Amino acid sequence: MNLEHSFVIMAEPDVAFAYLMDVNRVATCVPGVSLQEALDENTYRGTLKVKVGPVTVKYGGIARILSADPVTRVATIEAEGEESGTAGSVRANATMSVVPTATGSRVTVSTDLALTGRVATMGKGVIEQVGNRMVAQTSQRIEQAILESVATAVPVAAESAPPTRPAPAPPAPAEDESALRVLPLLGSLIADWVRRTFRKIFGARRDRAIRTTHGERK
Length: 218
Hints:
Elements: E1 2-9, H1 13-20, H2 23-27, E2 33-40, E3 43-52, E4 55-69, E5 74-83, E6 89-100, E7 105-116, H3 123-151, H4 156-160, H5 177-217
Antiparallel strand pairs: 1-7, 2-3, 3-4, 4-5, 5-6, 6-7
């Protein structure tokens, strides 16, 4: 049985494809899917519970990402499972592609589906209705999750940027070397002038004292 589903989400194609390749996050968007464990980076074990017509079935099985090309945004996925409590089984091979649109991205999933057991007797029409309902709900949840993750993203560069430091002050201009050489010379001249002045003052006083002494002796 070949099934094809397509939906549009308001997200850049690269962003949408990267999200769809994150099985842990996508699993939370698919109604009835419960992811149990990752067997390796591309293989996952889980369960699917879904209502098909008048019956509710539960499958337990494994899904594998066989290939994923982020350049062409095309991936192939394989899934197989057994129905709990009966002999029913499901096997699916799907090809998913993401292409840009005027408002975001179009995701197309083409599935080759093989069923046995109770569900297989209900016909393609009933199974297509169930698939369409699940795809519609899943696409809405994926779009909402992508929009929320983009809105809450904080630029790492803005958080980790070091505080801006003020530019260092320019060095003080060096004193004029010629002025430094003149200062000692000025000091020497001043000191010499002081010595000569004191000699004249004290010399004149001494001469007057000598003349006075000679006069008294006469």
